[in-house]
Amino acid sequence: MEKQSGIILKSAAFLVPVILMVGAAAVTGEREIIFPEIGAIATGLFLAPQLSWRVNGRRVFLLLLVSGVLGMGIVRFVPGSIALQMSLGYLLALVILMFSGTTFAPMVSALVLPILLQTKSVWYLISLVIFTTLLIGLRKMLEHAGLMQRELFHPAAPSETASPALILFRTAFASIMIVTALSTGWTFMAAPPILVLFTELTSPGSRALAHPGKAVLLMSLSAAAGAWIREIVTVRIAPSLLPVSVALSALLFLLILFRMRLFLPPAGAAMLLAYLAPDQALTLYPLEILAGVSAYFAAALAYRAVTGRAASAAGE
Q1: Integer Rg of the chain from CA
Q2: CA-CA distances (angstroms) from residue 92 to 26, 61, 101, 126, 154?
Q3: Which residues of 65-100 are buried (b: 16+ CB within 10 A; e: fewer)?
Q4: Where are the alpha helices (DSSP H) in the chain?
Q5: How wide is the angle at C-alpha 190 spanned by C-alphas 300 and 305, nearest 5°?
Q6: 3-state secondary structure at position 104
Q7: Residue 190 — very low, low, confident or very high, per pLDDT cuts 50/70/90?
Q8: pLDDT for 245-297, tens place per residue?
Q9: Is 304 helix (H, G, I), strand (E, B) or coil?
Q10: In whole numbers, what is the pLDDT of the chain averaged over residues?
């Protein structure tokens, strides 16, 4: 019974910020309030058996805020196409991550998302600050209640998170995917949560890379939980039911996550990103996520195979 109550409280800690955020966007009419990475961070903070990253609350807040400001700065002050801006933003995020002393890959999305959406509204930063603070506060409450173990932060050295060669590979392949996605109209093949996933897949000791089929299925089902429920409830029935729609999507996401038992944070963001997609893109949205995730998994597996052979050869 105690274990079940713990799961219920952790699930509530995931649900409340997600529903409040989308509800605030519905009430104010400001879509920039929806920050999909809140779904990923909440998954990693509350639902995973242990904290998904080497990070602490203060660094979560600072990395997200700095990334959000830099992303909006690129939109305002860096000329060029969206593809060029996104590639530059991803490279900048990788460099910051490398020297941050953390493995907190969701900061990538905080930097790249405003570029993809060409966001200039301060609502994006306000939402990021409010809901990040809420997540960190909820995590502290669960720790104090003894429902979650307090994680001690041990900084990661730059060499533990990436190398110049890995950053170059990530940026080159991501740039190809970004150009392909934007030129074909399958924009969400380059969705920021997938860039976060790619970053985590190519990190040393990636667990998700050991279960490619399961992870691809989880990302796709999570995207479908967001897109298709939103299409049915808000597009076909009533736009005013947006908070109801996201509550149903989030509940279905939790069911999928606990059933598959693969606690992959970007899946939470893939579910929420559907609430920023245009109405006409909702039907194909999960297929675009599927295509993008599959390509990034193939690239990550190829990179591990090549670098693994090179390391073996060097050791002989």
Answers
A1: 18
A2: 32, 18, 15, 22, 23
A3: bebbebbbebbeeeeeebbbbbbbbbbbbbebbbeb
A4: 2-28, 37-42, 57-77, 82-98, 107-117, 123-144, 158-161, 164-184, 192-201, 212-230, 242-260, 265-273, 285-315
A5: 5
A6: coil
A7: very high
A8: 999 999 999 999 999 999 999 999 999 999 999 999 999 999 999 999 999 99
A9: helix
A10: 93
Residue carrying structure tokens 């392909």: 180
And the tokens for 297?
A: 């998994």
Distance in angstroms (rounded) separating the CA atoms of residues 233 and 230 = 5
Instruction: Report residue 105: phi and psi, to 5°.
Output: -65, -25
Closest CA to 14 of 278, 270, 268: 268
Nearest to 95 by CA among 209, 206, 199: 199
CA distance 268 to 10: 14
**And the tokens for 2?**
């105690």
Q: How far apart are CA 109 and CA 121, in angstroms?
A: 17
Q: Cα angle at 55 between 110 and 300, to 5 degrees?
A: 65
What is the total residue count of the chain?
Answer: 316
